[in-house]
Q: What sequence folds into this?
């Protein structure tokens, strides 16, 4: 590889490029269904998280779907504008706002998510069940290892954001 003399660095760069390409290929395979429903992957992630985990704060949702606070506000505003989500302010603590599905939002995500899961299954179809299990373990290990150089507090936050068990 041009300019890289260290075999370990060369192997890491090659694996990184393959990881990015594979990620893009899978994303390309699953995005058309989302686009047909006028949803982004982040919007789908928010709807799916609230469906499966129940109402959450905006901060909790941002951590779960790996997006910034500013982007999360925009995502929720757009989904709320479409009547798919609503902000519910706590009567006990007016500072606390939980994001919940509307009936229309629940119907959409309950209909869409099984199809989306089938699209993911098809996109990952080149791998056997055993290979998927190995990939799962390797990606978890990679995620943990990538956080080792991050300061302790930042590593904990990143682990929570990326749902990596430490």
A:
């Amino acid at each position: 590889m041009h300019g890289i003399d260290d075999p370990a660095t060369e192997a890491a760069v090659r694996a990184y490029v393959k990881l990015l390409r594979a990620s893009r290929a899978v994303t390309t395979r699953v995005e058309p269904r989302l686009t047909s429903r006028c949803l982004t992957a982040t919007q789908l992630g928010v709807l799916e998280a609230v469906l499966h985990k129940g109402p959450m704060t905006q901060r909790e949702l941002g951590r779960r779907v790996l997006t910034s606070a500013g982007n999360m506000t925009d995502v929720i505003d757009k989904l709320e504008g479409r009547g798919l989500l609503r902000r519910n302010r706590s009567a006990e603590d007016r500072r606390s706002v939980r994001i919940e599905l509307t009936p229309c939002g629940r119907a959409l995500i309950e209909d869409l998510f099984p199809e989306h899961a089938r699209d993911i299954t098809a996109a990952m179809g080149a791998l056997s069940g055993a290979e998927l299990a190995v990939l799962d373990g390797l990606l978890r290990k990679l995620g943990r290892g990538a956080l080792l150089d991050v300061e302790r507090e930042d590593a904990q936050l990143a682990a929570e954001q990326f749902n990596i068990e430490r």
In short: Residues 48 and 128 are 26 Å apart (CA to CA). The mean pLDDT is 88. The longest strand covers residues 85-89. The domain at 7-126 is CATH 1.10.10.10 (Arc Repressor Mutant, subunit A).
